[in-house]
Amino acid sequence: MKPAQELLNACTFPLAGEVDLAVSGGPDSLGLLLLALDAGLDVRVHHVDHHARAASTADAEFVVAVGATFDVPVVVHDVEVAPGTNFEARARSERRRVLPPGCLTGHTMDDLAETVLLNMIRGAGLDGLSPLVNDPTKPLVRLRRSDVAALVGERGLEARHDESNDDLAYRRNRVRHQLMPLLSEVAERDVVPLLARQAHVLYDDRAWLDSLVEEDALRALDEVDCRELREWPRARLRRWLRAQLGVVDELGESHPPSSAEIERALRVVDGEVVATELQGGRRLSRSAQRLALEGGSTTLTSHG
């Protein structure tokens, strides 16, 4: 296994001070705890018990015991997430609700690569293909999952196993257990570092584009003449429309418009149609070369 110092050097922890950590009891989050302690940080652990699995109470007890071993405080957050449609999103929403702002999580390079693929098959653009990058709450994102697990084992900890991570009913698990190995086989190399490197490069491109359109974000939908919009480079116009036409679902998560909606909005801007329907029961229209967004709500019902 890689030396702990080498792993720590690749982390992006704060230089000093207090940090909140989300610790499930699995290998990634235990590695997060160990490396945060190695970094000399003042740690407080948070565990979210969803009560969705028979072993969830045992997981909470395990995390409390680990906290006692390392003399760090542990806060257990009890939430109720009923099994059923869209469970992952609802559980994620509950975690975000109870965890303190800026709470660090144990996402690794493997999680980044999986998220890239998940977003790709959803038809994501530049933003979706550069997730988790430069996120201060993801200090392990340059580490491999296997290296983090090896560190946990070397320190004598036996991580908890969440059997739901093996359930192929969940799309992420299919990407992890089926698609990623197949891609590596086809490429004849480990594709995780490749996908991660691509995400970091695309993030830099995305940051540059965002810097070019900073002033655009200050201009409301009805403030810009469509004749001016038609003169913009298409990439600039798409980014502006994505920001203007986004919605928030019932779980509090933000969603940009789909690529199909952007294309329909472009037709309105170009004068090919007078109006188009958007998600949330909204209607984007053009009158006297000005855009207007009417009806419906900016809050969507989330579906699995």
Provide the descriptors you would attach to this structure in a database record:
304 residues, alpha/beta, Rossmann fold, 2 domains, three-stranded parallel beta sheet, three-stranded mixed beta sheet, elongated, disordered C terminus
Q: Tell me, what's the shape?
A: elongated
- Please tell me the overall pLDDT: 92
Protein structure class: alpha/beta
Tell me the total number of β-strands: 9
CATH topology of the largest domain: Rossmann fold
CATH class of the largest domain: Alpha Beta
What is the N-to-C succession of helices and strands? HEHEHEHHHHHHHEEHEEEE
Number of domains: 2
Ends distance: 39 Å
Strand order of the largest sheet: 1-2-3
Uncertain regions: pLDDT < 50 for 5+ in a row?
A: 300-304
CATH architecture of the largest domain: 3-Layer(aba) Sandwich
Strand content: 5-15%
DSSP summary: helix tally: 11
Describe the structure.
This protein is an alpha/beta fold. The protein folds into two domains: 4-108 and 143-166, 3-Layer(aba) Sandwich (Rossmann fold), CATH 3.40.50; 216-300. Helices cover 44% and strands 13% of the residues. The chain has eleven helices and nine strands. It has helices at residues 4-10, 27-38, 56-69, 87-98, 109-121, 145-154, 171-187, 192-212, 226-229, 234-244, 259-270, and strands spanning 18-22, 42-49, 74-78, 247-249, 254-255, 275-278, 282-287, 290-294, 299-300. Strands 1-2-3 form a three-stranded parallel β-sheet, covered by helices on one side. Strand 1, helix 2 and strand 2 form a beta-alpha-beta unit. Helix 5 (109-121) packs across helix 7 (171-187). The longest helix has 21 residues, at 192-212. The radius of gyration is 22 Å and the shape is elongated. Residues 300-304 have low confidence and may be disordered.
